[in-house]
Write the structure tokens for this entry.
Amino acid sequence: MPALKPTDYKGRIAWLGVNVDRKDTLCSVPVPEMELTLAGCAGESHAGLTRPSCSRVVGLYPRGTEVRNTRQLSIMSAEELARIAAKMGIEAVDPAWLGLSMVVEGIPDFTLIPPSSRLQVGDGATLTVDMENRPCVLPGPVINRHFPDKGKLFKPAAKNLRGVTAWVERAGLLRVGDRIILHIPDQPVWPHLARARRQ
Amino acid sequence: MPALKPTDYKGRIAWLGVNVDRKDTLCSVPVPEMELTLAGCAGESHAGLTRPSCSRVVGLYPRGTEVRNTRQLSIMSAEELARIAAKMGIEAVDPAWLGLSMVVEGIPDFTLIPPSSRLQVGDGATLTVDMENRPCVLPGPVINRHFPDKGKLFKPAAKNLRGVTAWVERAGLLRVGDRIILHIPDQPVWPHLARARRQ
């Protein structure tokens, strides 16, 4: 029996976006709703039941290995976007610049919600969180176009604030404004975690 | 960028088993090797890219909802099987009685390894851990056939020792004796975890 537990941590969808061609631009285009299948968002550049592994997981796989796709969606929180902007000294970071799929609001310290948590949306569509998404330098150029010379500040400012990657466990429709309930794995922390992270 | 980190926690495959028809019996049949596709182990009763949701996840889904299958494999550790047997006052718990797919040895407190950890096996086959698998009463009757009246002791003895459920991230071959490397999500524990678990 899985140890999933619904929590009182509830949020709502503040923004949705799709990235149609990530070779062309990292940026997403805002949309009011998003239809999800088990392969992700049709037409989105990260969709697919599987994906060729990328440089991010070379510790596990030679580049291009077919693996199950755990990076269908990229999700951040409105509160953490605001914290990043404040640390960078700019008014706001537009989620479209970061190629995001979704911005949630109302769930504290969103980036660190437990791996394998479920985010269940209003009509039943459910996303499984893979884990924290680590910031990279790629959004730098687009940030520079809006705030000259600020792009290089993004990566350090976004440490532990860059949200999570996730995949579709149950298909359904997402709409801006929909309620989200966080379900977490209800299990003790592995006693060796701190040591393993130091290795 | 995902926060997966290889660790020095290494183990080996001590046992492999398949359950061909779980309606007929919970028990698995030991096998020397197991070919995995992204749908799991072909012919195994838990295989499939998707599954109809069961009573275990009624907190998320009406029973029978099509969801992505995170329960392709059920894995325990030899050390925790021995601890369960000791708590029950019997010589050993045969992994076949529990319908297991795999027994690993060498990874301490195996049941509690972090959700979304990866277990990478010798030739590259890789399993993603969903989370702790909670014990139930179903193995009771088969245990009773070998150790009369001991079956009811299994569920309490197996608390936090029942291993994990997992699914195939990368296809490949598992063989008894293969080395396993544990990769963990390298991220801080969510600050609200203890409160959310108490809710």
